[in-house]
Amino acid sequence: MAKLLRGAEVLFRSCAVSLLRGYLGIAVATTRWTFKIAPLARPYLTGEDGKAAVIVFWHEILPLTPAFWWWAEQQNPILKLKVLISRNRDGRLIADMVAPWGVRSIAGSSDTKGKNKGGAAALRHMRQSLRAGSLIVVTPDGPRGPRRVPQPGAFALARLSGQPVVPAGASCSGFRLGSWDRLLLPLPFGRGVFVVGAPLFFSRETEETGKDTLAESLNTLMHDAGCSAPQGEHGYFRPRSFPPSWLWHAVGMCLTPFLPFFLRWRQTRGKELPARVREKMGFATRCRPSGPLLWFHAASVGEVVSILPLVLSCLAKNSDVSALVTTGTVTAATMLAQRISDPRVIHQFVPLDTPRWGRRFLEFWRPQVAVFTESELWPGLLGLCRARGIPVVLVNGRMSESSWRTWRHFPSTIKKTLHCLTWISARTPEDAERFSVLGARRIIQGGDLKVAAPALPVDQAQYVALQKRFAGRFVVLAASTHSGEEEQIIQAVQSVRKTHPEVLAIIVPRHPQRGAEVASLLHNAPQLSLGQLPGPEDGVWIADTLGEMGLFFRLAGCVFMGNSLPPGKGGGHNPYEPARLNCAIATGPRIDNFAEAFSAMRDCITTVQNASELAQWVVDMLTHPQKRQRLAELAKGYVVSEQNLPDMLADRILRLV
């Protein structure tokens, strides 16, 4: 009988907790809140630069804690909030109610019999949490009162931890219970106000007067909150489990049954590896290493090149961590395998952005930190990371003019997506401004990782052999070319060779699988992928392999950067790589993706509009070697020394582990 009663009691309590949590969640989430935050208090509430504080408000507004937490967590997703509760039944009930929302509790007050206080243990726990950057919420008149009379615990904690007390007051549409504190419960679809005052610092000398100071401050804030809704930050605040975009979430769920057929179609076109295609569905093909895991996501080849120094810096600074690097393309995966052999680096293909596949990926790998690059803003994956409390950062953050205009048509989605990011290291001031306009917070002006990247590697033996083979020839490189512009490059080369037959052009298609297509434009020009080398009579060599761009930049006297000539859509490619290897550089006019880089190097990079101008530039570089060398040295000078950038970002990332 006793077991039956005990079971009934547990069931009743579980149902009560669920009902209370459901009601409170609906009421707080549907209330339109206004937050008025004292400027000096904001850094402490958002954990800026590791700051922490003891948040203090009267026990009567304890049910409104989720609203405060959801607001603070939107400012900084990795923030942690802990509430001091009593050890009695009411305290445990409150702890169970708020736990699913990420609010942790510390039991430290007396139980109903006045025993087992645990005050010393709770104090130690709170001091450790404050040192770790957590916020601690204390109700100084709880758990038994008297109402609005502060007890000395908050002062002692602030003094011993060296952190300030931040007072807060709140009011909302609701009703009060007949309890000792007249507990305030919110009503759904109402209005609420939080007012947070300036930080208060207490010492042993001011502790006696601090009681009156704190009571006066809290009562004033409660009065301000109850009188009217002050001007401040407005909005509805919801738990982090809500996705940034319900539409994106729903579309992803609906498309999931059809996406395997899409992946199969990509296999037939050589864009997926059959043995690893299930990675795109979130299935792992490698074992997760023990210990902390950093997840780096780089979409394609350019992002992989820029992020590798950051990955290696993180591994060098912390021998306990491993790195999971995900890419979206096969070429990027091949590049990663060629560039890095550290056993602590694991590669997987990133899952498509659907709820089911994203959850499967995160549940298996359980990363401590996620690092996305450039413009990889996937609402589904970012929302899933936020729901699991995984801090996400964006490095080399890029927001092009066209992307910025597109996202401005979806302000709510991009704002919620950006709020999932702990911080953004913007590539340029223009990128930082665009992110800020779209609603991003905590933006740091890091710089361009592509500038900080080391020179591309080379097989020295192969380089020496080809140097001997091409002795006496002037080598021109067309790097990362796209469909539609190879014809113009070939036309320019043929024009130059009429007067300078010693010219050899190396064409490197951006996508190596197009090598045969490009070779056919010249009636089967020699292809490196087939082991063919150019003979004395060959004017063009198709270098359709991966990971050898460092070799071709070193062989060339001048370089044309592809994906930039009309009629293609264009966008340009990274000019820092050839500049770092002492090359004279030319480009077409369509360079939107690297406009800042080309603008900074405009004095040493030539812009050509068509095949005729490209041919003239090649002749100019061929016949004026001193001019070519001067332009190459000037370009190299623009590749400023930012070798400390990966180390700086690595330090910030590792602090999140």
What tags apply to this protein structure?
alpha/beta, Kdotransferase, 17% strand, 3 domains, Glycos_transf_N, single chain, Rossmann fold, 657 residues
Number of strands: 23
Quote the average pLDDT: 87
Structural class: alpha/beta
* CATH class term of the largest domain: Alpha Beta
Main pleated-sheet profile: 8 strands, mixed
CATH architecture of the largest domain: 3-Layer(aba) Sandwich
How would you concisely characterize the structure shown here?
With 657 residues, this protein is of the alpha/beta class. Helix content is 42%, strand content 17%. It is elongated.
Explain what this protein looks like in three dimensions.
With 657 residues, this protein is an alpha/beta fold. It has three domains: 20-235, Glycerol-3-phosphate (1)-acyltransferase (3-Layer(aba) Sandwich), CATH 3.40.1130; 246-448 and 646-654, Rossmann fold, CATH 3.40.50; 460-638, Rossmann fold. An eight-stranded mixed β-sheet has the order 4-3-5-2-6-9-1-10, sandwiched between helices. A seven-stranded parallel β-sheet has the order 13-12-11-14-15-16-17, with helices on both faces. The chain has a six-stranded parallel β-sheet with strand order 20-19-18-21-22-23, sandwiched between helices. Strand 11, helix 10 and strand 12 form a beta-alpha-beta unit. It is elongated. The two termini are 50 Å apart. GO terms for molecular function: Kdo transferase activity. Residues 80-147 form the DUF374 domain. Residues 276-452 form the 3-deoxy-D-manno-octulosonic-acid transferase N-terminal domain. Keywords: Transferase.
